[in-house]
Amino acid sequence: MSFESLGLQAELLRAVADAGYDQPTPVQRLAIPPILAGRDMLAGAQTGTGKTAGFTLPLLQRLAAGRPAGARAVRALVLTPTRELAAQVQDSVVTYGRHLSMKSLALFGGVSINPQITALRRGVDILVATPGRLLDHAQQGSVDLSQVEILVLDEADRMLDMGFIRDIRRVLKLLPAKRQNLLFSATFSPDIRALADGLLHDPERIDVAPRNTAAELIDQKVHPVDRARKRELLSWLIGSGDWRQVLVFTRTKHGANRLAEQLERDGLSAAAIHGNKSQGARTRALADFKAGKVRVLVATDIAARGLDIDQLPHVVNYELPQVPEDYVHRIGRTGRAGREGQAVSLVCIDEHDLLRGIEKLLGRKLPSETLAGFEPDPRVRAEPIENGRRARGGKPPRGGAGQPRPARPRAGEGGRPGQRGGQASRSRRRAGARA
Ligand code: AMP
Predict the structure, then answer these.
(1) What is the DSSP letter of 337?
(2) Ligand 1 pocket, 337 CB below 6 A?
(3) Domains in the chain and their CATH numbers?
(4) Gap between the Cα atoms of 31 and 28, Å rounded
(5) What pLDDT sits at residue 189?
(6) 19 C-alpha to center of ligand 1: Å?
(7) How far is residue 111's CA from residue 195's CA, in Å, rounded to a whole number?
(8) Contacts 24+ apart (CB under 8 A), 409-417
(9) Which residues contact 279 (CB under 8 A, 6 or more apart)?
């Protein structure tokens, strides 16, 4: 099947050809025709499936077809959970819209608001925004959403996870009642279904999220190891395999920082990327990683979400995620676009339940390989894990969100876990208020 057969206009077909795409991906095949026809949509698709083009291409065509005379107005609004995703979606709008004269803007927090106000005044057709900063503009009167014809909620599950539901509802009140609504989400919790029920009218439902089949092309492996020796094993894997570009996941921001510092000490160029870093620092770290200046990028789930880093040869779960679906998101960073990738998980005794949860979701056991010299010590006992993320719909763990809190401080780990948890908990609330 070709892009031509989906009903896209010549300017968009040219942009797609410029981008080097031969064929539409499954989500594009399923999403583009109904969106072009003006239908609402409930789409199960995660990053890496080509979903951004799946909604951006038809959105551009609908806007181009129905362009009213007179001043520019915001006619399409895309809400995203993170700044990175907002920037990336807007990049895609520019890429796919390059042969149409359409103006787009990304609005997100963490950067000065004034240039955004100036850009809004000049006129914007397509706005890509995180909910918090968008509401800041709405309060100041610097954005008018009364002409929005198409609303996209991108990574809706993640927006709810990050506590944006009230902000989303406030944004919805600023939109005209008659509009086209598209909701993209990798997972469908009862909260997402409730949101979709209230938002979508007779939606076309599509689902390409490989929730149970974590991309066939990805070679997945578990290496059992003691928690105290994970860093050593990681450095060894990177060095002995001569891995040049590795994305490493930790559960917490603090853990990401600490690991990046330790890897630097091991002589591996590393950078951490997470929500407490300034926008500039995150952009720089990502650019350095893409350019090959930084060999190891250490990220938390939320920071990594939506990052457009493709076809990575290696993804490492330094710590398993608390939510099994996040495992699928993480490893989706590798083996994209038909290339093989490798995802390895360093699993200590504390994480056996998490591993079982992931295997249950995948519907199979992951191959496990104990590496010589890193055999787990059978005398080590499991310790409880606490996590930075709230359980879905539940209360935050006692002592605040943020850190895997060891029952007792372990040698070399800096102690004072309670204090770290408190800090992370505050920043988490901030992150929930504003992306
Ligand atoms: P997304 O799921 O939207 O984050 O897209 C993942 C990656 O796939 C992006 O880097 C796109 O540039 C790329 N992509 C999107 N559509 C296609 C296509 N039809 N063929 C090849 N690559 C694509």
Answers:
(1) T
(2) yes
(3) 4-207 (3.40.50.300), 218-362 (3.40.50.300)
(4) 5
(5) 81
(6) 9
(7) 29
(8) 410/227, 410/228, 411/228, 412/228, 414/258
(9) 83, 108, 110, 111
